[in-house]
From TrEMBL:
InterPro entries: Transposase_11. This is Transposase IS4-like domain-containing protein. Residues 11-81 form the Transposase IS4-like domain. The lineage of its organism: Bacteria, Pseudomonadati, Pseudomonadota, Gammaproteobacteria, sulfur-oxidizing symbionts. GO terms for biological process: DNA transposition. Pfam families: DDE_Tnp_1. It comes from Bathymodiolus thermophilus thioautotrophic gill symbiont. GO terms for molecular function: DNA binding; transposase activity. It comes from the Bacteria.
Length: 82
């Protein structure tokens, strides 16, 4: 079991919730792990080597990063403060 799968299982039993994750977790196995838990895939997509990233994947990553930014900024502030 991977670190990602452990985190997904700890997230609980909230069907239909979108799990936001960075590009480091972008893999077919992780997407399938989310699908198996009936969670929505919010993993950012990586650019294929030697190719351009599709317009839709750029928009998807932008939308995910806008939501993640708020959470990451809050965690950073808490970490610096305490």
């Amino acid at each position: 079991m991977t670190h990602f799968e452990e985190n997904v299982k700890q997230a609980g039993n909230q069907k239909g919730v979108r799990v936001l994750y960075d590009k480091g977790a972008a893999s077919q196995a992780n997407s399938e792990a989310l699908k198996a838990q009936k969670l929505r895939d919010g993993i950012m997509r990586k650019k294929p080597k030697g190719k351009q990233m599709s317009h839709w994947n750029k928009l998807r990553n932008k939308a995910i990063s806008k939501r993640r930014f708020v959470v990451e900024r809050t965690f950073g502030t808490l970490k610096r403060t305490y």
